[in-house]
Design a protein that fits this description.
Chain B: Keywords: Cell membrane, Membrane, Transmembrane, Transmembrane helix. The complex is a heterodimer. By secondary structure, chain A is α/β, with parallel strands linked by helices. Chain A has two domains: about 35-150 and about 285-350, Response regulator (Rossmann fold), CATH 3.40.50; about 150-275 and about 370-385, 3-Layer(aba) Sandwich (Rossmann fold), CATH 3.40.50.2300. Chain A is built from twelve helices and 15 strands. Chain B has eleven helices and no strands. Chain B is globular. The model of chain B is unreliable at about 285-288 (pLDDT under 50). Classes of the chains: A alpha/beta, B mainly alpha.
């Protein structure tokens, strides 16, 4: 029995090793241009991370199908972070030290913060694509975001509630993690600065599935509007429970709520929900309608967290432009040059999310599109520049 | 090389964690799973001391050791009067409760985590940290070995195997339990301190139940109650998922494969080798 087991283990190892060798890409005529992507492909956030990674994969295929960048193929190295900072660090260590990429993308605020020191120390450009913690702008020279941080759309949402809807009393409900805590604080400060009053400020735990305690406190506060800073994964549940408890006030949230899945999951409970989007909708940009069609064809469903997948689809295009800039100006393809290219190019026009300007202050500014759910559709109500 | 060194840092840290946890659970027979909270306390102690007060790294890590050691009394004094399942439940509560408190403390960064921990090593950073963490790991393993092979170790095992007989001999089991718990927790605090300096960012999310499961798996797979078991377990469980990423499998397969690796290992070991990879030396079999 023993020798047999040993043989089995050995043969498994041999097979695994041969897979590894066989999987290596053959050298091409022109060196491929590589970049890394570290996303949650497993774990609690995989539902969204995997779709975002797929969108980036599609973009790489589309770019290569059109001849790549200046005749070079673009190549993406995809690693799993499980949205866990420790695994994110492992993944980025590998991308930087083994794969030697000059630029990589990642998301989820805790992961972005955890890998920032590595990017700064190794002088490799880190692009945060979808995390919105305002602290991301201050993580160091090599960390840039391609996604507007919470202060952009959350402030727009507070302004709309206070100035257009004339709401006096707001309740703020947030998930107790970094993005929730920071986003809620921004909403509260903005709403109070405009003369409103925040009458309830409640957190719910990231791991819980029942939010009754926090919601009852919100109910007793008698607010005119309820703003939720949650994650794509828990928003539908929170809104459904709010409505079940008989709260009829308008509910607003930020870009995590701009997601066709929310309407599908909530049905009638989604009516009147105010969301912001940081990317134009299918009505405003025909390419997005095609993009959604492509999902339906390939996966028989709409993507989880559509706006995020739009940003992820655009990321390889942005990196491609940086590579193109360096090739044109005949500069070595290093991390410091990548960073320089990002600052020099600064203005991008991307297929899914439109114009993007990367500022020297590590922030991006974009118009915020506000939508309200009416008749099971996101209907544009305002655009805040 | 840099990458290998960065993995070795982790290996060293987890050897410290798994060995010290093995001291508590494997030798002491105290079923607690709150080990990551002491890891967290060490990390946060270093974070606060270095960011807010600029304390010397060596002193901060030593402080991490003592903070974790002292905090262990908060769990051990009330709960070691009970044992088995009750201790398990208390320890879960202790870990989650303390993490919630950390999440609500603004001066340690709350839910956003604590960043800006200074980089104390410049040049060959990964290699230096790998050396330090493996060095400390070696000291911890040797210390555990010396402890359990000496007369005190015999008392610990006697207490674990038959507490009633042990008490009948007039020995004080409570003191031994508290001492083991404090020492094991203090070691986890040291690992936390090194972790904070290496990663320069700590967040409460890193010390959740998943972390408990990981350290527990290392001890179980390696061999509970043996000195080298946790070392083998830590190396195996850290390097295996990393090795898989080099197989260049499509992400559709890679994701799930990494997800099931821990689960399947535990199940396999429970059936094939319940004593773990390395069986404890001279364990008395049979007779209950």
């Amino acid at each position: 029995m023993k020798p047999l087991r040993r043989t089995l283990i050995l043969s498994a190892a041999v097979i695994a090793a041969s897979f590894g060798l066989g999987g290596q890409v053959l050298a091409q005529a022109k060196e491929p241009l590589r970049f890394g992507l570290a996303m949650p492909l497993t774990g609690s956030q995989a539902l969204f991370g995997a779709d975002q990674a797929k969108a980036a994969q599609w973009a790489v295929e589309d770019i290569n199908a059109k001849g790549g960048i200046d005749g070079h193929k673009l190549e993406m190295i995809l690693l799993d972070t499980q949205a866990d900072p420790r695994l994110g660090i492992n993944a980025v260590n590998r991308l930087v030290n083994v794969d030697k990429v000059p630029v990589f993308g990642t998301a989820w605020s805790a992961v972005v913060k955890a890998v920032a020191p590595i990017a700064n120390r190794s002088e490799v450009l880190a692009l945060s694509v979808g995390a919105n913690s305002p602290e991301i702008a201050k993580l160091g020279d090599y960390v840039y975001t391609t996604y507007p941080l919470a202060d952009v759309d959350v402030v727009a949402q507070a302004r709309y509630a206070r100035e257009t809807l004339k709401k006096e009393r707001a309740a703020v409900l947030y998930i107790h993690n970094d993005s929730g805590v920071e986003g809620a604080k921004i909403y509260r400060d903005a709403f109070e600065k405009m003369g409103g009053k925040v009458v309830s400020y409640e957190a719910y735990d990231a791991q819980s599935t029942d939010y009754t305690g926090a919601l009852l406190k919100v109910r007793t506060s008698n607010a005119d509007i309820i703003h939720i800073q949650g994650l794509v994964s828990d928003l539908p549940q929170v809104i459904a429970q709010l409505r079940q408890l008989g709260l009829k006030q308008p509910i607003s949230t930020y870009s995590a709520g701009y997601n066709p899945k929310i309407i599908a999951q909530l049905g009638a409970a989604a009516e009147g929900l105010l969301v912001s989007a940081l990317a134009p909708s299918a009505e405003q940009n025909p390419r997005i309608a095609e993009f959604v069609e492509r999902w339906k064809k390939a996966e028989n469903r709409i993507p989880n967290g559509l706006p995020y997948t739009q940003y992820l689809y655009d990321m390889p295009y942005l990196i491609g432009e940086l590579y193109g800039h360096l090739l044109k100006t005949k500069q070595p393809l290093t991390g410091p040059n990548m960073r320089k290219a990002l600052v020099e190019v600064a203005n991008f026009d991307l297929p899914m999310t439109g114009k993007l300007t990367v500022g020297a202050d590590h922030r991006v500014n974009k118009p915020v599109y506000l939508f309200e759910v009416k008749g099971g559709q996101f209907v544009p109500v305002a655009t805040v520049q | 090389m840099e990458y290998v060194a960065s993995m070795l840092v982790l290996v060293g840290l987890y050897i410290i964690l798994a060995s010290s946890f093995n001291l508590i659970i494997g030798f002491g027979g105290l079923i607690s799973i709150a080990h990551p909270i002491f890891f967290a306390l060490g990390a946060y102690t270093v974070g606060v001391l270095s960011v807010k007060f600029g304390v010397h790294p060596v002193l901060s890590v030593i402080a991490g050791f003592f903070v974790a050691l002292v905090a262990s009394f908060a769990l051990s004094l009330p709960s070691l009067r009970i044992s088995g399942d009750y201790l398990l439940i208390t320890s879960i509560g202790f870990q989650l409760g303390l993490l919630e408190i950390i999440k609500n403390l603004d001066f340690v960064g709350g839910a956003s985590g604590l960043g800006g921990i200074p980089n104390v090593v410049s040049g060959q950073r990964n290699l230096v940290f790998a050396g330090v963490s493996l060095g400390v790991a070696l000291i911890v393993v040797l210390a555990v070995r010396a402890l359990v092979r000496g007369p005190y170790g015999r008392a610990i095992k006697a207490m674990r195997d038959d507490e009633l007989a042990f008490l009948a001999l007039g020995r004080n089991a409570m003191n031994i339990k508290i001492a083991i718990f404090a020492l094991g927790s203090g070691m986890a605090g040291v690992a936390g301190g090194l972790y904070a300096y290496y990663y320069q960012y700590v967040t409460p999310d890193q010390f959740q139940i998943l972390q408990s499961a990981m350290i527990l798996t290392m001890v179980v797979v390696g061999g509970m109650g043996s000195v080298l078991g946790p070392v083998v377990g830590a190396v195996l469980l850290l390097l295996l998922p990393e090795a898989i990423t080099f197989l260049n499998l499509p992400s559709g397969i890679m994701g799930p494969l990494q997800g099931v690796i821990f689960t399947s290992l535990v199940i396999l070991f429970l059936f094939l080798r319940p004593q773990g990879l390395i069986a404890p030396a001279k364990r008395v079999e049979g007779g209950h």
